[in-house]
Design brief:
By secondary structure, the chain is of the alpha/beta class. It is 41% helix and 13% strand. The longest helix is centred in the last third of the chain and has 27 residues, at 304-330. 45% of the residues are buried. The structure holds pyridoxal-5'-phosphate.
Length: 418
């Protein structure tokens, strides 16, 4: 007799579903499909040789340390490097403010474990990052949402949602996943102000901030928050300018700038919060791989990472431009899309009546794939949008894939009554 496992799963698993992204990623393995579905970086940009050399160096010089258990906080030189890197962003932190995580996905899970009681309300953007929704559903969170537009979160609509008493807000200010939009400077200030007034903390998820192709770098929320506490205004010309404390937990990752297979991310937070994160992480995995942290540090140090990120930006900018031009050429009237200034994604909105999940089925028949928008909405109710990734396909594939998708969209939109 087989074990009736379904009686044994914890209640919280009832709201866990298999992610459509993961299901769709299976399709990308079919060589005939041009997939704009995954959030994958361009693999040809991974600095494989630098990793090879760094791995040998780490094993030769520090082999026994690299293969030993280590502290939960993370490898000190890597945390120092992050502190220095964050300093260039205007975040004045010390190593006590930094915890290395196994990808920023672990940071999201860890924050859920640390902060969410069953039934707690979490305020997110609408749409928002699927991985966060998934992680927090497992802690039995409820979601309230505020829409985004081309300037990011509609901060003017925030107050009503805040009256519901959310535990925290989850915001992706730069080149949002999935929307591709960036929170404007004015809205950042207004957001900090309102979060402060309502006493609601912000989780700032920033995996893409370094991948800005054009326009001016905007200060992270964590910096504006520190400035507000300091009674100072951000001055674009005058960095560094603030010290670290406050109402924001910031997180980022090496996944998009070095390689996602490393599974390396980090949290920046007030030292007391980091101490709680450390206790929480201990139950998850004791610490992030010592070997990988040491290798990543060896690769990233001495300016290599900064130079490498420049190269990534150039390649992704070109791919974004090719995708945007192809969309203008091939997509029918009535379809709108965002024009991201960085990152990996753009967001397409179809006429209200269309369901992008049904369009995906037609698209797969035309051998092209994307992620239907409904998956990025906590309630799954908005169905006429989808996400496209432009970092992972070669320029010719982007042109061909968008032409195929244009054909699919013409097929579904033109027969619609006017
Ligand atoms: C907004 C956002 N947060 C977190 C993650 C997780 O990144 P990782 O766990 O690879 O660091 C991703 C990955 O795509 C993301 O888009």
């Amino acid at each position: 007799m087989s074990t009736p496992w379904h009686h044994r799963y914890a209640q919280r698993t009832q709201r866990m579903g298999s992610s459509m992204i993961r299901e769709l990623l299976k399709l990308t393995e079919r060589p005939d499909i041009i997939s704009f579905a995954g959030g994958l970086p361009a693999p040809e940009l991974f600095p494989v040789e630098a990793f090879e050399a760094a791995s040998s160096r780490v094993l030769r010089q520090h082999g026994s340390k690299a293969l030993q258990y280590s502290t939960t906080e993370g490898y000190l030189p890597l945390r120092e490097l992050i502190v220095e890197k964050m300093g260039r962003y205007g975040i004045e932190a010390s190593v006590d403010n930094v915890l290395i995580t196994s990808g920023s996905q672990q940071a999201l899970d860890l924050i859920g474990k640390l902060l969410i009681n069953p039934g707690d309300l979490i305020l997110t953007e609408r749409p928002s990052y699927l991985g966060a929704l998934q992680a927090w559903r497992a802690y039995q969170a409820e979601f309230s949402t505020v829409p985004i537009d081309d300037d990011g979160l509609r901060v003017d609509m925030l107050e009503e949602a805040l009256c519901g008493g959310p535990k925290f807000m989850y915001v992706l200010p730069n080149f949002q996943n999935p929307g591709g939009v960036t929170l404007s400077y004015e809205r950042r200030l207004a957001l900090i102000d309102i979060a402060d007034r309502y006493g609601v903390p912000i989780i700032e998820d920033d995996p893409y901030g370094e991948l800005r192709f054009e326009g001016e770098h905007l200060p992270p929320l964590v910096v504006l928050d520190a400035d507000k506490l300091n009674g100072r205004q951000y001055n674009f010309q005058n960095e560094p300018h603030s010290y670290f404390k406050g109402n924001v937990i910031y997180m980022s990752t090496f996944s998009k700038t070095l390689a996602p297979g490393l599974r390396l991310g980090w949290i920046v937070a007030p030292a007391s919060v980091i101490q709680h994160c450390v206790m929480t992480k201990q139950g998850m995995d004791l610490h992030t791989s010592s070997f990988i942290q040491m290798v990543a540090y060896e690769v990233a140090k001495d300016g290599f990472l900064t130079e490498h990120v420049r190269q990534i930006r150039d390649v992704y900018r070109e791919r974004r431009d090719i995708m945007l031009a192809a969309m203008s050429e091939h997509f029918p009237p009535g379809v709108r899309w965002t024009r991201p200034e960085g990152g990996l994604f753009l967001w397409v909105t179809l006429p209200d009546e269309l369901d992008s999940t049904a369009v995906l089925e037609a698209a797969i028949n035309h051998k092209v794939a994307f992620v239907p928008g409904a998956t990025f909405y906590p309630d799954g109710n908005t169905r006429n949008s989808f996400r496209l990734n432009f970092s992972n396909a070669q320029p010719e594939q982007i042109q061909e894939g968008i032409a195929r998708l244009g054909q699919v969209l013409h097929n579904v939109i033109e027969p619609m009554p006017v």
